[in-house]
Amino acid sequence: MTPTDASATAAAQDREFSERLDSRLRTFFAAEREQVTGISPAATDLVVAIERLTRGGKRLRARLCHWGWRAAGGPADASAPVVAAAALELFQSAALIHDDILDRSDTRRGSPSVHRVFEALHRDSAWAADAEHFGVSAAVLTGDMSLSFAEQLFAGAAAEVPAPAAARARQLFSTMNTEVMVGQYLDVHAEVAPAPEDPREQLERAMTVLRYKSAKYSVEHPVTIGAALAGASPEFLQRCSAFALPLGEAFQLRDDVLGVFGDPETTGKPAGDDIREGKRTALIALCAAGSAPEQVTWLESVLGRPDLSEQEVSRARELIRSSGAQHRSEELIASLVSASDDALDALETDDVSRAGLRRLADAAVRRTR
Hints:
It is a single chain. The protein contains 16 helices and two strands. It is mostly helical.
């Protein structure tokens, strides 16, 4: 099969899988809405909020899970990877809901974040007590519900495969859960703890947050979970990780660049949102390494200030650009993508699965949102 034919076949199978996933999610949410509404119609908004959030996005994690399954020899028509992919979508929704609370983000994908949706519901309904507290409380519970849904679905996926494969995939899913929570904590910790004086230590700390908060759960674990469900050996899973982890790191570095330089119309987030939120990203660490002491002092004074003016955000962006941090970040992305490409070339799998993984890899790092 030629590379062109393999890519075309992978694209068609990717679309078919996405349609099956959407159908599975619709069926799942219909059942959960009915169950929760039966408890109380007032609680239906919890499920609706998760469903709306899950409906958006590019389904990157779900599709990576599918191609991990296929790369390890899983059949195209099996239901286990569809159910596992649905679980990953709900896991991501939980992570996004909680992340927006931690970051005090007003928007997600161009729409109000979940805690702001519930805050608006409180205000519009003229309910008693504090609207903001209600919004955060309801969103925490919504995120927890989405995580519970993810666990429920993944248990169903694991039940469809042989016990050894199920055990290995369950362990990966549990590890992913723990790592994301640790990564989230390290992220908020980095926003309040003193920054290391050594820029190299700053970068190392930023990369640790990047790896455990995003890279592993966004790319590495979805691929390896899919492969594990298909019965992949530990050695094959290691080779999957060699492809997926550097790709995940490049994916998050691209996200960090977009968080500072992205177009709000495309990203769905206000320009410079990461600066206002005080994100200690690799981009900020690289900026510190390439700036004069007085410039670093100024940058430290504006990071995390929600009231930053557009002029101050523009000045911070210019400092990041002139320090060479943006260019250095692009170099890091290119190096990680090269390592990922080499590992994918060496992965012992069929041409269509390799093409499917390569298409998603390209989409992950060559994006504007």
